[in-house]
Fold:
Amino acid sequence: MSSLAPLLQAFFSDRLQGQRHASPHTVAAYRDTIRLLLAFVEQRTGTQPSKLGIDQLDATLIGAFLDHLEHDRGNSVRTRNARLAAIHSLYRYAALRHPEHAELIQRVLAIPEKRSDTKIVSFLTEPEANAILDAPDRSTWIGRRDHVLLVVAIQTGLRVSELTGLRRRDIELGTGPHVRCHGKNRKDRTTPLTKQTVAILRVWLTERGGEPDDPLFPTRPGQQLSRDSVEHLVAKHASTAQQHCPSLHAKRITPHTLRHTTAMRLLEAGVDTSVIALWLGHESVKTTQIYLHAHLALKERALARTTPPNTRTGRYKAPDTLLAYLENL
Structure:
């Protein structure tokens, strides 16, 4: 029986970090998947993870784990597919190191992704965005930090990881003001800043102080904010904003909602989707098409420019009262 532990160690150290130079976010996502899988297997079989063999993680058990994610943990189909992608990556590597388990590995690799519904993206209207920006208490240091972070997030559309990874040196407020970020798939990009954002950042950088490599949005002790911290502060200020903007009650506000809001603002301003894709750091313009589907006002304006069909409504004739009575019996 081939032990699973050496395979996992080689997968993370040699394959992901050594050969593929995977980003810390990818390594963390794969690690979380394997941790969930091993915990599930231990609960199902009673075998400790360090004593598991490769032959024990067959397609049946992997399939049961995927069902567990959806039905017991309440994960979405997209999350289920992301976990499966991590498992597939591990098993493709296992195929090279353990050809004696080729049949078992191929059965796991044959587990397909599930098709998922494409939901209309949620974004903030102008009044909703302003209500959230006004929510932080700017008489406190934390409130001023949160306000600047929200302004930058809504104006630039940066991802959470890009926001938390910003350093003081990434902000250029001189000629051609912009913010530089190291984005997904190791892509660096620059995003221009508006005059209002520049003014707010200038005041914040003066108060923030510190060295060029220090986080732009630090915690109170000066450390980099975590993803959970950003999600918490966005949810907190959205909850506060609901008191002045009731329409927010019907929306689940996350940091990604702020990113969608940026895209919708650009779309409303007439910016081409290819430019929006570059602005947001999308791999493909196809990803940006979701905003066209979500923007009802654009569809209504397009409808107003069309010629309606040349037809008339029919005349309604009320049925005979006696026949109507008999039909309803």
Q: What stands out?
A: The radius of gyration is 26 Å. Strands lie at 171-172, 178-182, 188-192.
